[in-house]
Amino acid sequence: MLEFDFEDSIGYAIFTTSHALRRALESELSQVGMTLRQWEVLACLACDEGFSQTEMADHLGIEPPTLAGVLRRMERDGWLERQACSNDRRRNRIMATEKAEAVWKQTKEMCHHIRQQATAGISRADIERLKDMCQQIRLNLAEAGHAGAMAPCLDENVKRNGQLNEMIAETETVVT
Q1: Do residues 42 and 100 touch, judged by C-beta distance below 8 A?
Q2: Mind giving me the DSSP string for the chain?
Q3: How far apart are CA 3 and CA 80, in angstroms?
Q4: How does pLDDT run across 91-134, given as a tens digit for each residue?
Q5: pTM of the predicted model, to two decimals?
Q6: Which segment of 18-32, 53-67, 135-149 scores lowest on mean pLDDT?
Q7: Does position 50 have pLDDT exceeding 90, yes or no?
Q8: CA 150 → CA 10, 19, 143, 156, 163, distances in Å?
Q9: C-beta neighbour count of 32 within 10 angstroms
Q10: Distance CA 94, CA 75 (A)
Q11: Euclidean distance between CA atoms 169 and 35, whole angstroms
Q12: Rounded CA gap, 151 and 154, in Å?
C-alpha cells in the first residue's frame, strides 16, 4: 500500500489551498463567461501590457501552443488584440482592449470577494507572514538549484510597473 503523511506535508497544504482558491475563482469567473486561464492572461496584461505570446506563455508556465488557443478565443471575443512590435515585425504584442478593461474591473471585484471569504478571521499580520514564508520557500528552492522556483510572480511585475499600491487596494492576485 502506498503511504504518505499528508498531514505533515507543506506542499500538500499549499496545493490544496491553491486548488480551493482556483476553484472558487473559476466559479465566480464563469458568471461573466471567462475561464481562469483567460483571467490569468488579463492579469499578465494588467502587470505588463505588451507581452509577446512566448513571453506570456513563459510567465504563465504553459506551452505557447496551449496559450495560442486561449489568445485566439480572447481575440475573437474582443478582449485583446495583437499588434506588431515596432522594433521586430515578426513579433506581436498582446494588448488588452477596452472591453477587456471593463471585464477586468468586474473580475477584480470577484477576486476581492473571494479573498475576503478566504481570509476571514485571519489577521493582516498573519497574511503578510504567510506571503513571506511562501517567498522564503521559493528562495530556498531556487538556492537549491530548482529551476523556475523564483520565477517572478505577478506581485513582482506589478512592483516594477509602479501599480502595486493600486492593485493591493483593489484586489490581490489569487493566481498561484
Answers
A1: yes
A2: -----GGG-HHHHHHHHHHHHHHHHHHHHGGGT--HHHHHHHHHHHHSTT--HHHHHHHHTS-HHHHHHHHHHHHHTTSEEEEEETTEEEEEEEEE-HHHHHHHHHHHHHHHHHHHHHTTT--HHHHHHHHHHHHHHHHHHHHTT-TTTTPPPHHHHHHHTT-HHHHHHH------
A3: 47
A4: 889 999 999 999 999 999 999 999 999 999 999 999 999 999 99
A5: 0.75
A6: 135-149
A7: no
A8: 18, 20, 9, 11, 21
A9: 13
A10: 10
A11: 24
A12: 10
Q: Which three cell numbers stand for residue 112?
A: 476581492
With respect to CATH, is domain 24-170 assigned 1.10.10.10? yes
Residue 60: φ, ψ to 5°: -80, -10
Residue of higher predicted confidence among 54 and 38: 38
Tell me the residue type at 46: A
Q: Where are the domains of the chain?
A: 24-170
Please say whether the dihedral angle defined by the alpha carbons of residues 164, 102, 49 and 71, taken in this order, is positive or negative.
Answer: positive
Measured N-to-C along each axis, helices 64-76 and 53-60 cross at an angle, to the nearest 10 degrees, of 110
Q: Scanning the structure block, which residue is given the C-alpha cell 477584480? A: 108
Please determine, for residue 174, whether its predicted confidence score (pLDDT) is greater than 80: no
